[in-house]
Here is the input.
Amino acid sequence: MLSFKVQLFSVLKSKLKADSVDLETPEGITAGEFLDLACAQYPTMVPYRRVMRLAVNQAYSEDAHILQDGDEVAIITPVSGG
Amino acid sequence: MVADESRKRRVQLSYERIDIPAAYQFLQTPGAGGVAVFIGTARQWTGEIETLSLTYESYEPMALKEMHRLIDIADGKWPIQRVCLLHKLGDVCLTEASVLVGVATAHRAEAFAACRFLIDRLKVQVPIWKQERLTDGQKVWVEGNHPSR
Here is the structure.
């Protein structure tokens, strides 16, 4: 198993009342599977699943990207800077 | 403040007010025949909804990387001589600048094009989020743009 501290921002941070959550995953998990697992463990995220993207080591990842132990992960919802 | 500066580019996320004269001074260079500056400001009315103030938050290390990446792309498309990409974080009051994009190039067409590209892409790609404080006391995260895949 791998352990991640998942950083949260904006609406997810407000809804979960936390700026990060912990997630344990099997080895070899992809970014897309990671987001599904996060929603399963934290159902508050479910309404946002369609618009969530995973950032891995401070860059947007593709759904098929395989996570490695020690990766920095953050869930990015649609941005609204400017 | 998180800033990164070279002779050619200034990229910054800051909780301080954006220093517009300083940004313009940075953009000035003898080789430039045009400087395009876009300043995004906090707007009071969105339709019938009144905003009192805005608050911005960011995933700062990634935002800075994305801002640099956008400048790298722009630099490959247009002959940029100087470029600024500055965003304020935290509270922004009405009329205050939340973002400044400035580009200096030899000719105006490239300056306009690169400036437009940078602000348009920043609003889609850079992990910064805006929360509006409304007159009824609500604080609402603005529905944002989906990062492109």
